[in-house]
Amino acid sequence: MAEIIFNEVTVSYGDFPVLKDLTFVVEKEDFVIVMGPNGTGKTTLIKTLLGVKKPDKGLVYVLGCPVQKVCPHRKKIGYVPQFQSIDPDFPATLCDVVLTGSYANLGYLKLPGKEEKEEALRLIEEVGLKGMENHPFGRLSGGQQRRGLIARALMGSPRILVLDEPTAGVDLASQNQVRRTIQEIYEKTRIPVLLVTHDINPFLSLVTKIVLLGYGKHFVGEKDEIIREEILREVYGEYVKIIEVAGRKYVMTRDYHYA
Ligand SMILES: Nc1ncnc2c1ncn2[C@@H]1O[C@H](COP(=O)(O)OP(=O)(O)OP(=O)(O)O)[C@@H](O)[C@H]1O
Ligand SMILES: [Mg+2]
């Protein structure tokens, strides 16, 4: 059975369906990008996957278990939420924040111990933040905070990694570091990744499948089925161009160029 299954899922706020009859599967080792303009339901899709938002219709399975029921596998999803700015005086260190990733697996009233602390330090090193574990989290740069939240998501060895726009709002160098971190984790663990991003280009070599959301429509398919001008134009409008440089494809949309 696939690692994630969305089967004809409709999700609404009030009477307004944001996702309508959405079907897709994520298999072992898939690297899935969820893309689409603002407000098309990318975060809603993730909330539905996590069991936080209930669908009106359809079923969602994670690791073989319907998420609408009590699903122990929900704990096996490492989740990096869409970024919210953090007060520079937020009273927690990087290590404190990463350790909160162990709480779901520890259970009620159990505090992280030596083992979890060692795991947190190992993951902090893995995301390239070694030596920063005692820094106040709110005083790290935006890119460092993103990498810290990725380390947090990896606590307890998740079987699926879900990230909601982890490269949004940081400078280009930091975006590259976050992207490299995601790539390294994927190549090392080969756990399926479901990544929401507006910028597919840096990930095009990794992507296996794409869920493209538009207003009132969606397209799901293998990378080569979706990365086509006629499909992307259905969602982004006429200002879409795919260019090829040195054998690599790049998707250009008006979003990136503010023409
Ligand atoms: N809690 C809510 N109550 C009512 N409407 C909501 C709620 N959350 C989201 N929506 C609406 O649902 C639609 C989809 O929102 P969602 O946050 O899933 O979009 P998104 O694709 O993640 O957008 P963005 O690119 O801005 O992050 C939007 O029209 C949004 O206003
Ligand atoms: Mg969103």
From TrEMBL:
Domain ABC transporter as annotated: residue spans: 4-240
GO-annotated molecular function: ATP binding; ATP hydrolysis activity
Keyword Nucleotide-binding: yes
Classification via InterPro entries: AAA+_ATPase (IPR003593), ABC_transporter-like_ATP-bd (IPR003439), Metal_Ion_Import_ABC (IPR050153), P-loop_NTPase (IPR027417)
Keywords: ATP-binding, Nucleotide-binding, Transport
Transmembrane keyword on record: no
Gene3D superfamilies hit by this protein: P-loop containing nucleotide triphosphate hydrolases (3.40.50.300)
The name this protein goes by in its record: Metal ABC transporter ATP-binding protein
Protein species of origin: candidate division WOR-3 bacterium
